[in-house]
């Protein structure tokens, strides 16, 4: 199926351009050269008023008076105030975005940031979703809200992960469309990739096979966001996109031993074991491997995506393949960070889940060769310190 590409001319009006015409050239190459292969002149031109079928494409060509530009948040700013609504703003990743926006100077003048929790609106409910959008009139949305949990919570409740997340995502995207939101950045997850796949996994592989059985509900709901984004783009030209973090951890995570993801569950367990003088029990063999990325790094990158990344297709936000570690490595780092000297046991009767889901960050590196990730050991130490300091208010 032909991919439709939107470019913006100096008129500011986005136009669809048929890829049959620009052949195998990528959009970046087109923008670099400011010249579409196949046009009739050597001058930089842009195709307008294209009439494309699957095999043919007729376009009217116009000279570019100034370089083609992809719509950016700056140009939106000129049109009026920017109000960024963050769904799931009270969760780990929402708090990380709040931290980098408010404390690291990423907030720009004239921008308003609104961080929602489920208390502001249950986004499974369309009426409540509409009401909260009506109240805040966002121009941009970072959509993080989701029913979220660790491996064992998914295995217990796959159907609810499917239905809650389907409803939340459809309500948010539909309401964003209805209320004229300029850009939505939604959050997928690396667990949505096919289970039987070649490594490293990249962004093009999402729909190439079934996800791991353990989280089939959540994975299918999240995959559909990518399909919805494509639909909103092809039908309305909306710039709704998505990001794919790998395993995220950090302050404000859910540290509940039964429901949490592995990093926060093991921090909670190890701290409790240290207080009580008991062994720590790790679920499974410890052999599974994961790419752990600190929430603040993901937060910084999501703000960059909101401002600068113009593709509809998702982008993986993660530490590199070389930083993949085993669960056993993670436990040892947690024990060191919490100064836990007791016994570490493994309950091998429990599932290891997906053994690996190694992703490639080649695409991210093309855009952000400069971005430095926090080393996992440093992130674990920071998260353990936060947990100990906030034990009374943390989610346990
Ligand atoms: P989290 O800490 O559990 O936060 C979830 C957020 O969603 C909370 O703000 C929660 O509000 C909100 N929420 C849940 N159900 C809702 C509902 N029905 N209506 C409105 N809001 C609702 O999760 P997180 O780890 O920050 O995850 C954020 C996003 O990142 C999710 O989309 C998740 O799929 C994605 N992600 C996470 C990871 C990871 O390892 N954690 C990895 C990849 C992708 P309350 O605080 O009021 O409950
Ligand atoms: O973070 P996690 O629960 O989920 O990690 P996934 C599961 C891995 O950690 C398995 C091991 O290999 C478990 O055997 N593990 C060891 C533990 N001890 C524990 C423990 O106490 N609790 C937990 N939870 N695991 C998730 C998806 O998959 O990937 C989520 O289910 C999310 O939805 C996330 O998308 C990124 O990494 O297997």
From TrEMBL:
Pathway entry: Nucleotide-sugar biosynthesis; GDP-L-fucose biosynthesis via de novo pathway; GDP-L-fucose from GDP-alpha-D-mannose: step 2/2
GO molecular function ontology, one term from the record: isomerase activity
InterPro entries for the chain: Epimerase_deHydtase (IPR001509), GDP_fucose/colitose_synth (IPR028614), NAD(P)-bd_dom_sf (IPR036291)
NAD-dependent epimerase/dehydratase domain span: 84-320
Pfam families linked to this entry: Epimerase (PF01370)
Enzyme Commission numbers on file: 1.1.1.271
EC category: oxidoreductase
Keyword terms: Isomerase, NADP, Oxidoreductase
Biological processes per GO annotation: 'de novo' GDP-L-fucose biosynthetic process
PANTHER family the record matches: GDP-L-FUCOSE SYNTHASE
Function, in words: Catalyzes the two-step NADP-dependent conversion of GDP-4-dehydro-6-deoxy-D-mannose to GDP-fucose, involving an epimerase and a reductase reaction.
Family from the record: Belongs to the NAD(P)-dependent epimerase/dehydratase family. Fucose synthase subfamily.
Name of the protein in its database record: GDP-L-fucose synthase
Organism in which the protein naturally occurs: Sparus aurata (Gilthead sea bream)
